[in-house]
Specification:
Elements: H1 2-20, E1 30-32, E2 35-37, H2 44-73, H3 80-83, E3 90-93, E4 99-103, E5 108-109, H4 119-129, H5 141-154, H6 163-172, H7 179-195, H8 198-208, E6 210-212, E7 215-216, H9 218-226, H10 235-242, H11 259-274, H12 280-288, H13 303-317, H14 319-324, E8 328-331, H15 335-351, E9 359-365, E10 372-376, H16 404-412, E11 421-424, E12 448-451, H17 452-457, H18 461-471, H19 473-483, H20 507-518, E13 522-524, E14 529-533, E15 539-542, E16 548-550, H21 554-564, H22 571-574, E17 588-593, E18 599-605, E19 610-616, H23 634-646, E20 660-664, E21 670-674
Parallel strand pairs: 3-8, 5-7
Antiparallel strand pairs: 1-2, 3-4, 6-7, 8-14, 9-10, 9-19, 11-12, 13-16, 14-15, 17-18, 18-19, 20-21
Length: about 700
């Protein structure tokens, strides 16, 4: 109802203006309650005419201003170019600065200051994208006309947008091709030129625009295509990179035959010569320079370790910061050791396919500081059909006899010694509500009365169970937790079979357990990260020193280590020249195989290195019965890794504590005791009952 009245009122205003202009007179109006009435009716044609005039003026003075105001309200503020939350990739490096992986949500970006970007890149970009960059105010009429000329005359599609416009389009607007978006782009470009210097705009452009694939910004592009920082590129490479933003897919170095990329590079160099940035001679040298383009790759090294780090970072900092916050993570990993371990694991697992072995894993750690030097979580991370992406080093597995070191550590601290005699004979245990438990040895035989040294060295099961029955399961659980096992939570789940591997653990747990022995009883938690900063260099976290916990008495740890490095003590089970021996090196080692041959372990160490190896199947299916005690399955992998690890190093014996003494003992050998626990007679008493078979242990 009000619209006609408004239109009539506007028409009245028009009449008033015409009257003031002394134009032909029109009938007078009379005002009554805001509505003017003709003294006599106007002809219908006059009513229509003045109604249309009212509509026209309403459109010009009301609708257009209001619509323009509303449209301008939708424009993003150019100040967001510096204030908005820019997504920056998180980068994970090894200990020597080798890039392992980049984490980003959808855009891989590494911001660089303009001072760190070579002039060749800056000049090449300006020459090919916006030669009048330093002359215009955000919009270049010459550029628009030049683009039209190229399209019409040379059939060469070019955009007339300035660098400022391209920055606005990439950072603040959508890529839609519409007149409305183009107008917004031009207005915002003009506005941005009032807020920022040319240098600031060029820096934001080089860090913002897409260069192909997931690479956003010149630094990410240089890393992806050339494998180097943009600060290290030459003129030929600079011309190649500068030509990409106009059409990243078309000009991609990964396009068929590399033809489009090289054609674009020549065009960039031609424009640089034309604008006086380089000479003809310099351009000719650049054209003759061979460019080495990295092949497309999945962009990940040490994948299981990287995903382990990523999960850890997200737990500490949240997934948003990890994906968008530009963290720089320096890890403990050694890429050289990692690659060596990956090759060894894959080679041996492939050779074991006839023994129903489908997977393997390896972990190399430094017991002195807990640093993880290599983590191979499976034979092949990318073999999804066999669940290769599952990280076995963090998965729960039965450790078999490898866990006996925890049992014997608790026993040695409870009054046992390496010379304590244990009868390896049939035994059974009955617990109300549970079936009778009668442990057997892996070889199906019993070996009579033997010293603890040989019971552990040959990994006999019955003596280990009898030892645990004497000291109590709770003591072993407590000692295991102190040595680094985080998986043993509910004590009620475990019985005497715990010493034979009845409690599941991870490879990380076992690396800490054996690392505690290698570190003479001091436990150091595993540490995969050295330092975390943001992309500006601000330190968020630094982990160069680790706290230690005295988990095992020093002399007990040394005695256990001495037993595990005693090749003669394991001769009965493994022979004199097994793969558990590293020629010329002092290495302690223990094997383990779970029930039904589902898990197969070998773990060995020096004072500076712990190598933990597992083989088995991800579906938990049993392996071939010949895989006993880790000698056939895990031991060859462990042996080759340890050989490579120690080949350029001198022997590193374990230092004997001052509290250790030795006296003559069984089989014509000296035995080691903690001072005060040695026999008062100065020698070991004879074995009271004969063994069930002659001793296989040779004299030293």
């Amino acid at each position: 109802m009000f619209v006609p009245l408004i239109l009539v009122a506007i028409g009245d205003g028009v009449l008033y203006v015409l009257k003031k202009l002394r134009l032909p007179k029109f009938p007078k109006w009379k005002r009554k309650r805001f509505v003017r009435i003709y003294p006599r009716p106007l002809p219908p044609s006059d009513k229509t005419r003045w109604f249309l005039i009212g509509v026209l003026f309403c459109f010009i003075f009301l609708f257009i201003p209001y619509s323009s105001w509303w449209w301008l309200r939708t424009l993003p503020n150019p100040t967001l170019l510096t204030k908005r939350d820019i997504s920056v990739a998180t980068k994970i490096f090894d200990r020597n600065g080798v890039l392992l992986y980049e984490i980003y949500s959808d855009q891989n970006r590494t911001p660089m200051s303009l001072s760190d970007i070579p002039l060749s890149i800056q000049n090449a970009t300006i020459a090919i994208e916006d030669k009048d960059f330093y002359l215009h105010n955000g919009i270049s009429l010459r550029g628009i006309l030049r683009a039209i000329k190229e399209i019409v005359l040379n059939k060469n599609i070019q955009g007339g947008s300035t660098i400022t416009q391209q920055l606005i389009k990439s950072a603040l607007l959508t890529p839609e091709v519409t007149v409305s978006r183009k107008i917004k782009e031009m207005l915002l470009a003009f506005w941005a030129e009032r807020l920022y210097t040319k240098e600031q705009i060029l820096e934001m452009y080089l860090n913002q625009v897409p260069y192909g694939g997931t690479s956003w910004g010149i630094e990410a592009a240089a890393q992806m295509y050339l494998g180097k920082s943009v600060s290290d590129v030459n003129l030929a490479e600079a011309a190649l990179l500068a030509g990409l933003p106009a059409a990243p897919t078309t000009y991609s170095p990964y396009s068929a035959g590399f033809e489009s990329a090289m054609h674009r590079q020549r065009e960039v160099l031609r424009r640089m010569v034309e604008d006086g940035y380089v000479s003809d001679e310099e351009a000719g040298i650049a054209l003759a320079t061979q460019i080495h383009i990295l092949p497309p790759h999945n962009g990940i090294r040490a994948p299981h370790f990287v995903m382990y780090i990523k999960e850890m970072l997200e737990a500490r900092y949240g997934s948003r910061l990890v994906q968008r916050g530009g963290l720089r993570v320096k890890t403990t990993l050694d890429s050289g050791l990692q690659e060596m371990a990956e090759i060894v694991v894959q080679t041996h697992i492939d050779s074991l396919s006839g023994l129903a072995v489908g997977n393997g894993a390896a972990l190399i750690t430094n017991p002195k500081n807990g640093e993880i030097l290599a983590m191979v979580g499976s034979r092949d991370y990318f073999d999804m059909e066999k669940q290769g992406n599952v990280n076995v080093t963090t998965s729960l597995q039965q450790p078999g006899s490898a866990i006996k070191v925890v049992n014997y550590a608790a026993a040695l601290e409870s009054g046992f010694s390496a010379a304590t005699l244990i009868t390896d004979s049939p035994v059974s245990y009955t617990t109300p509500g549970s079936p009778t438990y009668a442990p057997v040895n892996y070889d199906g035989r019993f070996h009579g009365t033997i010293p603890l040294r040989y019971a552990l060295g040959n990994s006999y099961n019955v003596p280990a169970v009898k030892t645990l029955a004497k000291i109590g399961v709770s003591k072993m659980i407590e000692k295991g937790r102190m040595m680094g096992i985080d998986s043993w939570q509910d004590e009620n789940r475990y019985g005497l079979a715990l010493t034979l591997g009845g409690g599941e653990v991870t490879m990380l747990d076992m690396a800490e357990v054996f690392g505690t022995l290698a570190n003479l009883g001091n436990r150091v938690d595993l540490q995969p990260i050295l330092e975390i900063t943001d992309y500006t260099g601000r330190v968020l976290e630094r982990n160069h020193s680790q706290k230690t916990l005295s988990a095992v008495k020093t002399d007990v740890a040394w005695i256990l280590t001495n037993i595990l490095s005693d090749n003669q003590a394991r001769t009965s089970a493994f022979g004199t020249n097994s793969l558990l021996q590293i020629p010329g090196k002092t290495v302690a080692v223990k094997t383990g195989t779970s029930n039904d041959k589902r898990d197969n372990w070998t773990i060995g160490y020096t004072p500076s290195s712990v190598v933990t190896v597992w083989v088995g199947n991800n579906d938990n299916s049993p392996m071939h019965p010949t895989l006993t005690s880790g000698v056939t399955g895990a031991a060859p992998i462990w042996h080759d890794i340890m050989i490579n690890l120690l080949k350029d190093k001198s022997d590193e014996p374990f230092p004997m504590p001052e509290t250790i003494v030795s006296i003559p003992c069984y089989y014509g050998r000296a035995e080691y005791f903690i001072r005060g626990t040695e026999p008062s007679s100065g020698h070991c008493t004879p074995i009271p009952t004969p063994s069930l078979r002659p001793s296989p242990y040779p004299s030293p």
